[in-house]
Amino acid sequence: MPRPTCRRRIGFQPKAVYFKPAGVPIGIVQEVVIGQDEVEAMRLKDLLGFPQEEAASQMGVSQPTFHRLINAAHQKITDAIINGKALRIEGGNVSIHEEIAGPCRWKKQWGQGCATAESVVVSSGEIKKLKQGGIPMKIAITSADGKLDGMVDERFGRTKKIIIFDTETNSHETIDNTTNMNASQGAGIQTAQNVVQAGAQAVISGHLGPNAFRVVSAAGIEVFTASNTTVREALESYKNGKLSKLAGADVEGHW
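^ thats the sequence. predicted structure below, dont judge the formating
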């Protein structure tokens, strides 16, 4: 059995996660999958110009591990370009730390500017809280019974109900998802499409498979995990910035 890897810290999530050669139908094009940790290694070393030691430290990995990550990334991109394959950014055992951006001299080079003395007096927890709870939005929560005091359903694709909570009005509506509970296939994709069509900007659930995560990510929807808790408690934790954000699928398909 291979040794489990430690989580790699990343400070960036790409807005575009799929690239394909022009003129090749998506149904027949071969794909190369590059992990988010491999993309982060390229961002730090190739784009921001971090020395390898500093880049490895930013990601919380050893220099040999960082070297393997960036070599794998370069090889995959080369394969996609030379052989006309699509490139998908997905997966990787990562934890997201978007406040990590490196010293000001690297920020200036890429037009990111530097923080002022006033703005740096904000903890990472406060930053996370502002991102999660500070802007009116719709949040989709998988629910066992469609009630705020009911439990969060930890199976995203086969959840019985989906609660759409509006943080601006503090009101909610419930979507019946029972048709997907016993589906032989495609439950995660269909549930994700229901969430997208409902206009949600965030999802709170227990676990997501690769297909479901791909659909919500493509729609720009962020995913947060909650387990063994009620919908109301999960919403409160979200507003207080206490939920963990998923960087990729955390279970296999058909879970």
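The first strand starts at residue 8 and ends at 10.
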